[in-house]
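ok trying again, last paste got cut off:
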Amino acid sequence: MREAFPPLEKVPHQLLYLIYGDKDVYRREAKFSILTALAQLQPDESLCIRVLTDRPQDYAGWPVETVPLSEQTLIQWQGENGYHHRRKACAIALGLTLAEKTLFVDTDTLFLGSPHRLFSMITPGRYVMDRFEYDWSYVCNRADYEKLARCLQVHGISSTNSFKLYNSGLCGVTDGDAALLEKSVRLIDEWTQGSFDIHTIEQIALSFAMRDQPIQEAKKFIYHYFADKNFFHAMQKHFFARYGEAFHPELPELCNEVPRSKPVPSTWERLRIKWKLRKKRGGMKKVGRALLFGSAAPAHPYYEICRHEWWESASREILRWDSVTQKAFFGSGKGWPKHLPKPARKDDQQAIIAYLRKRIDQHS
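nice, full thing came through this time. structure:
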């Protein structure tokens, strides 16, 4: 039995989010993304923002409309094969009934330009996606893509007649695209039968359904930080700790104080670090790079908050090593490892080693 959703006015344009669960980090992600969209609007512009969520109370007082989702709906949207990213395709399909143009946005997305620039790119039969990632021919022979390759052969697709795969972190469609989303959901169900090895089947299905249509990339107007979440989560936590999560009119402008990139050293510093690590190989080079990048991050209040995420990256690499290699890395003393260049900030030496030892001890 399908759930009856509360009636909403059909609008020309809408920014659409899907968020469920009670994890603070994803709620902050969504709210910060919304703030970056609002911060890009001109004084005379307005924006309809809708949030599909099982926790509408989290957005009370925010300039958004919520569409409550029950547990039953979330289970139904996941499908019989238990693929939770299927929910995104179902959310977009529902969104088509609420607006003439829908811009679906993953919560880990920052707006660098006005959403209206993206709405202007969406027309019937012309779509907007986050960015082009690769051609099917690039991955079709990889072991984890073997099952999907067999499924695509049924549709006449091989490495010789490939199609482009897009990241669906942002997806712009019109209310005339119901059949497109229905096809995407059917493909997801077909490709996830039995088991599935690829977590991005949803965006592959959408890309396949769109393959004969013109698609424009949104990457000039947004930053989708899916690969750097830890850095942005740390900065967003600090931002909302400073200003609170209750919405007030100054919040969109205040969000501009948070950098739109992770803390990366200057070009000159990166070259210096590369030179210092030129003789290192494999895991040792990865660890050295992460530690030195964290120490050489640009001076900025929010970068100070998340520098340690570089150290965390190094600790994850060290945890992959066996105990003998770990012991050799730290050596017998408590000082900086002799086989690694020292960090730019002298005070970081003890702080980094203490951090790494604590992380290793927690997993021993």
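cool. The chain has 16 helices and nine strands. The domain at 11-226 is CATH 3.90.550.10 (Spore Coat Polysaccharide Biosynthesis Protein SpsA; Chain A).
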